[in-house]
Amino acid sequence: MGSAILVAFTVLAFASFALASDPSPLQDFCVAIKDTKDGVFVNGKFCKDAKLATANDFFFSGLRKPGNTSNQLGSMVTPANVDQIPGLNTLGISLVRIDYAPYGLNPPHTHPRATEALVVLEGTLSVGFVTSNPDNRLFTKVLYQGDVFVFPEGLIHFQFNIGKTKAVAFAGLSSQNPGVIPIAKSVFGSNPPISDDVLAKAFQIDKKTVDYLQAQFWTSN
């Protein structure tokens, strides 16, 4: 009996150790400082006294309205995260509405802190994501009204309206602050710009092409 208890205790101890890990960050980075007067609160936001909370802290009407798709990509993402709905703080979930003009594109991007589940409300979308190295496998599907597709956390993904009419989709994300990294804008629209030498070698293109791409207006969609 004594040895069985010891084994059970050891297993429980290792399980507890395995589960004891830092929470996932809700920002890009957090630089440590010793003087807290210059510090900021991370992994969420300061909490309101629960007695002072109101229904409006959990409400947002911004997803009623179509986004303006009059841009070079022909799409617009309207977020409903903790910045729009304070009551989402610590709850680990958020939403977006995505509007697409005919042949509009939500370009390749990643969410560093969230998995995304997208449902098509109107139109026809070609969607997909690419797995990590070494396979770089493309998973792609054509979605129709009512169809759902999941984009795993951190993987590059996209949606393209292949119809002649507008399209609308809603998506749930598994973070109150999922973040978004548009691939083209991040690489060619960084501030300050990434070196021509780096990009020319990385993409196997000449520096004139790099300069041309860096000179483009990269939307924040």
UniProtKB/TrEMBL annotation:
<feature type="disulfide bond">
    <location>
        <begin position="30"/>
        <end position="47"/>
    </location>
</feature>
<dbReference type="GO" id="GO:0048046">
    <property type="term" value="C:apoplast"/>
</dbReference>
<keyword id="KW-0052">Apoplast</keyword>
<dbReference type="GO" id="GO:0030145">
    <property type="term" value="F:manganese ion binding"/>
</dbReference>
<feature type="binding site">
    <location>
        <position position="106"/>
    </location>
    <ligand>
        <name>oxalate</name>
    </ligand>
</feature>
<comment type="similarity">
    <text>Belongs to the germin family.</text>
</comment>
<keyword id="KW-1015">Disulfide bond</keyword>
<feature type="binding site">
    <location>
        <position position="116"/>
    </location>
    <ligand>
        <name>oxalate</name>
    </ligand>
</feature>
<feature type="binding site">
    <location>
        <position position="111"/>
    </location>
    <ligand>
        <name>Mn(2+)</name>
    </ligand>
</feature>
<feature type="binding site">
    <location>
        <position position="116"/>
    </location>
    <ligand>
        <name>Mn(2+)</name>
    </ligand>
</feature>
<dbReference type="Pfam" id="PF00190">
    <property type="entry name" value="Cupin_1"/>
</dbReference>
<feature type="binding site">
    <location>
        <position position="109"/>
    </location>
    <ligand>
        <name>Mn(2+)</name>
    </ligand>
</feature>
<feature type="binding site">
    <location>
        <position position="111"/>
    </location>
    <ligand>
        <name>oxalate</name>
    </ligand>
</feature>
<feature type="domain" description="Cupin type-1">
    <location>
        <begin position="61"/>
        <end position="211"/>
    </location>
</feature>
<feature type="binding site">
    <location>
        <position position="157"/>
    </location>
    <ligand>
        <name>Mn(2+)</name>
    </ligand>
</feature>
<dbReference type="InterPro" id="IPR006045">
    <property type="entry name" value="Cupin_1"/>
</dbReference>
<feature type="signal peptide">
    <location>
        <begin position="1"/>
        <end position="20"/>
    </location>
</feature>
<protein>
    <recommendedName>
        <fullName>Germin-like protein</fullName>
    </recommendedName>
</protein>
<keyword id="KW-0479">Metal-binding</keyword>
<keyword id="KW-0964">Secreted</keyword>
<dbReference type="InterPro" id="IPR014710">
    <property type="entry name" value="RmlC-like_jellyroll"/>
</dbReference>
<keyword id="KW-0464">Manganese</keyword>
<dbReference type="InterPro" id="IPR011051">
    <property type="entry name" value="RmlC_Cupin_sf"/>
</dbReference>
<keyword id="KW-0732">Signal</keyword>
<dbReference type="InterPro" id="IPR001929">
    <property type="entry name" value="Germin"/>
</dbReference>
